[in-house]
Amino acid sequence: MSLLRSRLTQGAAAAAVLALTVGLSACGAAGEEQTEGPTRQFTADNGTVEIPQNPKRVVATGYAVPSLIEADAPLVGVSSWERGEPMMSDEDLTTYKELPQVAGETAAETNYDAIAEQNPDLIVIGVPKPIFAEIDAERLESIAPVVAVGPDVPSAWREVSRKQADAAGALERFDEVKSEYDAKAEKLKNKYADALSGLKLAHVGGYGEVENGNFQREFDGSWGTNIAGDIGAKYYGEVEEKGKGSRAVSEYPSLEELPSAMREADAITYTVNADGSVPQSVEYVMDSNLWKNLPAVKKDMTFPIKYTEAATYGQAQQTLDALDETFAPLLNK
Amino acid sequence: MTSAPPATPPTVRTARPAALAVGLLALLAAGVASVAVGARAVPVGEMWGAVADFDPLNGDHLVVRDIRLPRTVLGIAVGAALAVGGALIQTLSRNPLAEPGILGVTHGAGFALTVGAALGLAGSAVSQLGLGVAGSVLATALVYAVGRHSTLRLLLAGVAFSAVLMGVSLGIRLTSPDTLDKYRFWAVGSLAGREQADLTVPLVAIGVAFVGALVIARSLNAVALGETVAHTLGANVARVRTVTLVLITVLAGAATAVAGPILFVGLIVPHLLRRLTSGSVPWLVGLSAVVGPILMLVADTIARVLLHTGEVPVAIVTAFLGGPMLIWVVRRYGAGSL
């Protein structure tokens, strides 16, 4: 019922299944020629791994796909990452489409032959640590050195994407994009300093479970809030019972609890799709009279946010633009 | 040689009205519990106020009026539809393991939703409802076209067609994560999250079909004795069978479309009542319409409080309750009850 609850879990599961299948089917590749040249020790989620200092043929899966495309890493194959497509720049999307798809979103679509054909000298697995434990890493390593670098909490995409770029020897471009993001975030922080100062925010995420009559409330550091946090937005409260991963910063109360959850909010943000449409789980909340009775809603202090799934600095710049657009009316209040 | 239906023992004649009265009282209690229990604590006074003196600015009143009451009404309708549908199909097929979904209703609805989601047509609750109904009706019509000549053939066609639809649906979902995500909402079988959809049409359809079931029940009494006996008693078997199948399709199709696949209610409720009703189909239908909603409301209320972390889909609770109940019936009354 909640198999695909969080996007973190979604991506992780897909990437894990993919990597597992790759591992299982890679047994025949043992002993294949490895890249020669200088190596270095790299600390990843799967321990310290000896990897090429300047990898030339990198395969990326999961969250590593968008981050390494953006960092101009020497990719020779990627897994499918459909959900990230709306946030890719035209150039990155072209690159993504042109790269050999060595696997789809699920294990059933894994194409081992395609992976073997690429003869990678490094495989970057972008899944969280617990998921990587389910992978037959030994078999994967028979193809090429494997580094697992995945996020834990949503906001960790910053450190994770940097580490992925570092492993792939693509820090130069990564740092350029990061600088652009930092500059834009700083500019918006100044622009909205007064408007956001003291404003108690709450966020309705896009992963509520309508079939269970609940909604997703996201706090500071969650997918829907962490980039807004970089421009000074403060989301009040915290998760009642902290769980692992995204569950540490978001929870799923019943719709009946909407008034108690958001009554104190001065303003409410909510996740919308990349095309601006409202996800069914958010629509469920907004259609209820409980929502219409909230003080923030009555004061017309609700703001849609696009691109809340951003997991790279390039994508996050689109989120900043979306925040700038949605928060603009605050400057006149 | 034929024989007349056995006379009803006097004890059974008095037990049925008593059971109906007790059932109605239990249904009232289950309904009150369904309105009273939830994630938000609502005082009894506010519950009554939500009905008698509604204040649109009062959060408690809104919870009762907008969430719990619609959900309770939905639970009653779905429980009654599934239980009556189960009583009809078991009587018609003379097969104790039959349940409404056996005619392809459930998998027809699932297939239509899967295809609709893949084509981008299942974005709203209303469109999902429409797809579910359309899939149920089309699947049952196809099953009927193939197996209309005999009940056994009908059931086999239903099973086979359901398997085909299930396989094709699964194939589509496996290759399309977006489709899987949309299908997931419907597939869990739940009464939650439906309260904002306009359910007038399915609820009216269920009500009309229930009345139809009561009307056809006397004729089904004869069919339940076997086709030869039914012919001897003057029943038009073909017409009764056709009308009954239409009623089952409407009942199960509407219930499945609004709440998703909820198993066991249609299977277990008729079994619970079979001995009590002692072969009277009208009483079986009538009591099923009372006990089905009780089971559904109790399961739905439990579903809200079972886990402190959130709700459990009601279909899971009905399965947990229904399985042991079926085993109990078998142990209590022996295989003859089936």
Question: How does this model look, in words?
Answer:
The complex is a heterodimer of chains A (333) and B (338). With 333 residues, chain A is of the alpha/beta class. Chain A has two domains: 11-174, Rossmann fold (3-Layer(aba) Sandwich); 191-332, Nitrogenase molybdenum iron protein domain (Rossmann fold, 3-Layer(aba) Sandwich), CATH 3.40.50. Helix content of chain A is 38%, strand content 16%. Chain A has helices at 7-25, 64-70, 90-98, 112-118, 129-132, 137-141, 157-167, 171-191, 193-196, 226-229, 258-262, 280-286, 289-292, 295-298, 313-327, and strands at residues 39-44, 47-52, 58-62, 75-79, 101-103, 122-126, 146-148, 201-205, 216-218, 250-251, 267-271, 302-305. Chain A has a five-stranded parallel beta sheet with strand order 5-4-3-6-7, sandwiched between helices. A five-stranded mixed beta sheet of chain A has the order 10-9-8-11-12. In chain A, strand 4, helix 3 (90-98) and strand 5 (101-103) form a beta-alpha-beta unit. The longest helix of chain A is centred in the middle third of the chain and has 21 residues, at 171-191. The radius of gyration of chain A is 21 Å and the shape is elongated. Mean pLDDT of chain A is 86; it is low at 1-33. Chain B has 338 residues and is an all-alpha fold. Chain B has a single domain (65-337), classed as ABC transporter involved in vitamin B12 uptake, BtuC. Helix content of chain B is 75%, strand content 0%. Chain B has 13 helices and no strands. The longest helix of chain B has 35 residues, at 59-93. Chain B is globular and about 65 Å long. The two termini of chain B are 25 Å apart. Chains A and B meet through loops of A and helix 3 and helix 7 of B. Chain B: The chain crosses the membrane at residues 72-89, 101-123, 129-147, 154-174, 199-217, 245-269, 281-299, 311-330. Chain B: It holds the Pfam family FecCD. Chain B: GO terms for molecular function: transmembrane transporter activity.
